[in-house]
Design a protein that fits this description.
Elements lengths: L1 H7 L1 H8 L12 H7 L14 E6 L4 E5 L10 H7 L4 E7 L15 H14 L6 E5 L1 H12 L6 E5 L15 H17 L2 H12 L6 H12 L3 H12 L14 E7 L7 H11 L7 E6 L5 H4 L1 H13 L1
């Protein structure tokens, strides 16, 4: 089934692989904002070759995790809004959007989760709220599964606990493994022009705004290809669903629907309901008229959801 899917639907395949490609700064003149955005400085108290953290604001702690290939700048608008009432920890994952990568083809996700846990401990955070987009949402769930004592609550933004479930409810980790390897190798083998073309094509299905699409491609072009290959391999073969039943951390799963070029509401409802069925008391909430980057396509509605999540 997966082989036929990959062979017959290259455009959809490209969009699915791009589900975690980064979003832009959410501001007027997105392309200009990308070009002029200052390089973030890591919090001096924490050193890691897997991630860095920039801290702004004061108040209860909120950790923001970007998605695949994405800069922490994806959270700029939300962090700027929240910093008046919260202490916001903007994570940057190594290898993405120009951040150095020194780990070759070694695993990406599991070591990063452990570094997130170490950051929470070292920074003395008291059960922070964790908000993650796409791969960042999966990371938040994995962090809470592995370290329930460290996480207060999780918001997963347009992210499933098993990415490869996008290809069908019967797909397993073992079935997805050869296609994860294929995806990883494709990222390594593509020349710059082909890679940019693929990312540009995939971006159409990820955001409604043309400027947003342009900016997210630039983040992916600035990423380390080996880091991208290692990350997509891990994401496609990591299934967090077996651990959902035992979770005690509150989880909100926010997801998008768009009847004009994105996922229709009925399809999105069915998939998110099915994939989070094992998680007791999960809060599922759909945001309409949005593609994968909800914070970009519906910033006001997204901000309202975040406020309710943090207030609960």
């Amino acid at each position: 089934m997966l082989h036929a899917f990959f062979k017959a639907r290259p455009r959809l395949r490209a969009a699915l692989f791009g589900l975690a490609v980064c979003a832009p700064c959410l501001a007027v003149g997105v392309g200009q904002a990308f070009a002029q955005a200052p390089r973030a400085v890591a919090a001096p108290a924490f050193a890691s070759d897997r991630l860095s953290v920039e801290v702004v604001g004061t108040g209860p702690d909120v950790i923001l995790i970007p998605g695949f290939a994405c800069s922490r700048e994806v959270w700029r608008a939300e962090a700027d809004r929240l910093k008046a009432t919260h202490r916001v920890h903007k994570v940057q994952l190594a290898g993405f959007a120009g951040e150095p990568w020194t780990h070759g083809d070694s695993p990406f996700v599991a070591p990063m989760i452990e570094e997130l846990a170490r950051y929470i401990r070292d920074a003395g955070l008291d059960k922070p709220a964790v908000i993650g987009h796409s791969m960042g949402g999966l990371s938040g769930i994995l962090l809470a599964e592995a370290h329930p004592d460290l996480v207060g609550k999780v918001m997963s933004v347009d992210s499933l606990p098993f990415f490869s479930a996008l290809f069908g409810p019967q797909v397993t980790v073992e079935a997805a493994r050869p296609f994860a390897e294929q995806a990883a190798q494709s990222m390594l083998d593509s020349d710059a022009d082909a890679f940019r073309a693929g990312q540009t094509q995939g971006a159409v299905g990820l955001a409604r705004d043309p400027a947003t699409r342009t900016a997210m491609v630039e983040w992916s072009m600035a990423s380390d290809r080996q880091a991208l290959a290692s990350a997509i391999r891990d994401v496609m073969t990591t299934d967090a669903r077996p651990g959902l039943a035992g979770m005690t951390t509150p989880v909100w799963a926010i997801y998008a629907s768009d009847e004009n070029g994105g996922a229709p509401a009925a399809m999105a409802d069915a998939m998110w309901t099915r994939e989070y069925a094992g998680l007791p008391n999960v809060h599922l909430e759909r945001v309409d008229d949005s593609r994968h980057f909800i914070m970009a396509d519906q910033p006001e509605r997204f901000a309202a959801v975040v406020d309710r999540f943090l207030a609960e």
